[in-house]
Each structure stands twice: as C-alpha cells, then as structure tokens.
Amino acid sequence: MSNILITGVGSYLPKKVISNNELPVNLDTNDEWIKKRTGIRQRHLVTEGELTSTMAIAAAKKALQNANIDNKDIDLIIVATTTPDKTFPATAVMVQSELNIGIGPAFDIQAVCAGFIYALNVGSSLLKTSNFSKALIIGSESFSKILDWSDRSTSVLFGDGAGAFILEKSNENSEWGILSSNFYSNGNFSDILHTDGGPSLNSQVGKVRMNGKEVFKHAVEKLSSCLIEAMYSANLKIQDIDFLVPHQANLRIIEALSKKLDIPINKIINTVDVHANTSAASIPLAFDNALENRKIKNGDIIALNAIGGGLSWGASIIKYGKPD
Ligand code: COA
Predict the structure, then answer these.
(1) How do 42-44 and 161-170 pair as beta strands?
(2) pLDDT score for 148
C-alpha cells in the first residue's frame, strides 16, 4: 500500500496589515476586547489586484520550490476556498494555467474553515487510487470580501491569505507522510455559521453570519474528538505529537484544546494573533510560519485539525517531510 508524503509547503500573505486599532471606527470595537476574547492583534487584507487565485499561485510557487519539483510533474490540483475569484470556473484551473501545469484534474473544494483538511483527505485518497503521483493542495481565501464590515462580532475575526502543500506518493517509507485522517459534516448546524446570500438564493455573494457562542462550543468538542480519533487510528498517543497545527480561529479555542487534550501550549502552533482566521488557508499558513521559525522539522509528528461552517470538521496526523 502506498503512502502520501508532504514534501513541500508554501504560503502567501497580503502586504497590507491592519492592526486592531486600525479597524474602521464605526465598528465600535477596541484592541483590548479583541485581544482578550480572541487573541487576534492584526490581520492581512487583500488590496487591489490581490485575488484568491493570485495568492494561491504565490503560495503554490513557494511550495513547489520547497519540494524541489517541476510544475509539469503535478498531476492533480485542489484549491480549498469559500471565496473564489468567480462563481466559476474553479480557482484551481487558474493556478493550473498560470503555473503551466499540464492537463489533469483541477478543482475547488468548499468546506469553509475545514476546507484544507477536506482537500488533504480527497487529494491523498485520489493519489492512492490512481496512477497520479504528485498533487498540489492549496487553501486560499479573500474572506474580507464576504464580511459585513458593520458587524463587529464577525468582521474583527478574519483575515486573508493562502498556503499550499505538495503531496507525493511513495511506495517506501510507510511510516512517513499522512498516517491517518478523518472528516465529517453535520448539516443540522448549517445555520450557526453561514452567509446570507449565494447564486441560487438571491444572486448575491452574501455576508458571514455567525452565532459565535454556539460555534465556540462545537469547536472545542469536535476538534478534540476528531483529533483523538485520528491519533487512535495512527496508533499514536497524544505525547507522541511534536506539534499540533490547529485551525486558527481563536486563542481561547486553542487554549481549551490544550487543556482538554493535555497538549502543552508550547506544542501548539499559534498564528491567530498575526493572521486572524484565514479560513481554509489557516493550517498551511500556520504550518509554513512554524517551518520558517524552525519549530517544525523534517520527521516531526504533526497533528492538524479544523472546523468550519457546515458544520464541517476533521483531523490528520502526519509525519512531515521525507527521509534525508
Ligand atoms: N468589540 C467589542 N464588543 C464586542 C465585539 C467586538 N468586536 N463583538 C461582540 N461584542 C460584544 C457583544 O455585543 C456583547 O455585548 P453585550 O454583552 O452588551 O450584548 C459582548 O461583546 C459579548 O459578546 P459575546 O458574543 O457573548 O462574546 P463572546 O465571549 O462569545 O466572544 C466571539 C465572541 C465571536 C469572539 C466568540 O464567541 C468566538 O470566538 N466564537 C467562535 C467563533 C469562531 O471561531 N468562528 C469561526 C470558526 S471557523
């Protein structure tokens, strides 16, 4: 049975940084409230010319370089996004064209903040069951475009950015790569985090609407349960994890996970303070940040977990990189 290695990581953040103090005055919010309730200090926001596709392309270029593989060797492209450039075609085909990746499947996945875990699951499953050997998996979001900038309970929480993984099939090194993964949805909770528009509903893009308290409760419970399940499937114990890279939504959710799962806080990558919640981009962005800061190293056991609108959630356990 082949296994799927993660051999390259890349990310991109828009140049424009907005601190809590620089948020629109009419929001009636303040730095102290945001930091205390969320841990967020700033977010990157797209400006003219920066799109979900251009950020995805920039992150992908870095990941390809990092993996040291030729663009032409990519067999499959998946972009996880809730904020595509256009309703169609998929953002993934724009990446395919711009990077001169040859003809092959390229499509988007929409599982909101759990999108990257979904893309990882779908991408690795496709590699295992086809003659494809290399996949480009991207999370890219311009979430600022679907925020109601008069709603302080949602607009302060999100940011923009992109991140990418290169997946490579291997028939050796079975103890490396994706060791286990799971993903779930429960549509009964679709109304606690959603947009109030869409092409079929009212021909609008819609804005984010959220019952923050309810989402918070589900987040802690579901992020814990899927992670425990993934650890069990990988036949590993919590103590075996070198780092947890959770979806970056709220520092209080991260702290609650640390407590509930008994994972020391210094083993949890936290970039929510500087990136805010970048939805499907948050895990690869945080992962790349941890690589740049020399926290995550080749061969580390890393847990990933995410939850988002749907509700949709899931987890993966990986041994990062490949043998030297
Ligand atoms: N600035 C100042 N005050 C704010 C505010 C802001 N940005 N947003 C809300 N408030 C106010 C509320 O109006 C409320 O005021 P009131 O007591 O006068 O009615 C008060 O703060 C408390 O609001 P509440 O919603 O109870 O706060 P909370 O402690 O639940 O924190 C969230 C709100 C959104 C930060 C929190 O619920 C959360 O993080 N939930 C999870 C959200 C999430 O991660 N979503 C994405 C998942 S992918």
Answers:
(1) unpaired
(2) 97
